[in-house]
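Suppose you are handed a protein chain with no further information: no name, no annotation, nothing but its sequence. What can you learn? This example shows the usual starting point.
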Amino acid sequence: MKTYHKNNERLATKVFKDVFDKYDLMNDLMSVGLHRLWKDSFIDWLAPRKNTHLLDVAGGTGDIAFRFFKRTKGQANVTILDRNENMLKEGKRRANAARIDKGLEWVCGDAMKLPFENEAFDYYTISFGIRNVLDLKKCLSEALRVLKPGGRIMILEFSKIENQTLNKIYDAFSFNIVPKLGRLIANDSESYQYLVESIRKFPSQEKLESLIIDAGFRQVKHRNLTHGVVAMHSGWKV
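A reasonable first move is to predict its three-dimensional structure. Written in structure tokens, the prediction is:
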């Protein structure tokens, strides 16, 4: 399933390449700070165990990796993969500032062609990144390949809002405010206009769930957060 054309790929690359140092600030502004609570809920559902290995794809500045590391009290390994070197550099800077100097590996690579051996990881996470993958089927197939039997995939992504009133408010904020914030904070409204539009084009909770099942995962479930503004998806390799 190829979701976006080449121009959208260019815009997705551009937003992460150019605003890596303002990425967290823009996330706070675009979500009114809720992205932090969503990521906490994501880790709660993941319930990471010690002595395991997480692959966090599109891990960028390390938000999920650091939460995983903290939850396991540093007694686990985390590999952060991102296609953008600047995002990885920002993540490394944050890790150094937090004095996290062991158990983390930073890899530049593509979610559709992971540079890892088969059955290498206990967990695969991707948070607000799968929306920018050109081929969801390849991405999910690669996730299945690199997970160990009994391994778990979890996805956190913007989704379809259940409440129509909230949906209208959210649309008004997204299309009228977010591009202006992009211009004001990052001097780039075009890329943030793309991000807003990409959310609307992304598959619904039920459709994404079907794609995860089709990829070979089992016990696939999803949970909505904030009335479906975002959704968490979980599946297991059996």
